[in-house]
Amino acid sequence: MSSASTRRQRRFLDQYGPWAVVTGASSGIGRALACRLADAGLNLVLVARDRPRLETLAANLIASHGVQVQVVAVDLAREDHLEAIRRVTDPLEVGLLVASAGFGSSGPFLESDITSETEMLMVNGRAVLQACHHFGRRLRERGRGGLVLLSSIAAFQGMPYAAHYAATKAYVQSLAEALQVELRGDGVAVLAAAPGPTHSGFAARAGMRMGAAMDPEAIAGPILAALGRQTTVLPGALSKLLSWSLVPLPRWARVSIMGTVMRGMAIH
Ligand SMILES: NC(=O)c1ccc[n+]([C@@H]2O[C@H](COP(=O)([O-])OP(=O)(O)OC[C@H]3O[C@@H](n4cnc5c(N)ncnc54)[C@H](OP(=O)(O)O)[C@@H]3O)[C@@H](O)[C@H]2O)c1
Q1: For atom 41 of ligand 1, which residue has the closest CA?
Q2: CATH for 56
């Protein structure tokens, strides 16, 4: 490793270490981000529901990187989920929150299962709100750190046939943009990461088929590289292509195009 990249790594560790909390670390983008953070030498608290997958990842990262890793197996839709996270994180010096846990659905809104959509609101919305408020206060007190929130290219306009999912991501995007301004004076960087289609467990859970899609490992690097430099990152060429091609159009036209695309992707 060159001395310039060693210095960059030291700065990253100093700003965002020694501990990072990663929600959604059992799969996909959250897992890839956790691996990248271990590469950078950060200790990790891995959060998701699937304890065996979290424990396997933890054991691998401890063995391969020599970092410390703790696991919180919790359903973020539960009202008391933050207590479970706090039991582990309160004694640790946390410098970074990565809020990647989330899921989507597809198909006509009125045919959706309202119990599952409400759970989505809790995971994609309430859990992000509560984590940002709790860890944001801790980072402000510390005078440095970061919040990385997983938005989506779906956040920038309404999306028929994934109407509620896109609305949850608009919430995340808006929250991140505003917090970036509020917290920058306190030394806390806030980043909205807005990927396009990415191979992960997302499509299967949302009942969608994905055509062209990116690999989580390929977008994890660009996401972390944008932290502290940008408010929003569209990681990877596909995210940029899909998002920028819609920018010149009026919002109603973007909504209409997204609806056509989503109708083609929905399995039901
Ligand atoms: N893949 C894409 O095309 C894409 C595009 C744009 C944005 N995103 C966003 O990227 C983020 C990560 O998605 P992904 O693509 O990595 O999907 P993924 O592979 O399905 O990962 C989702 C993660 O969220 C966790 N999770 C889901 N429900 C949870 C709950 N109730 N409680 C705790 N953890 C829960 C899952 O863990 P458990 O199942 O173990 O709980 C898993 O670790 C999401 O916020 C998604 O909206 C994805």
Answers
A1: 49
A2: 3.40.50.720
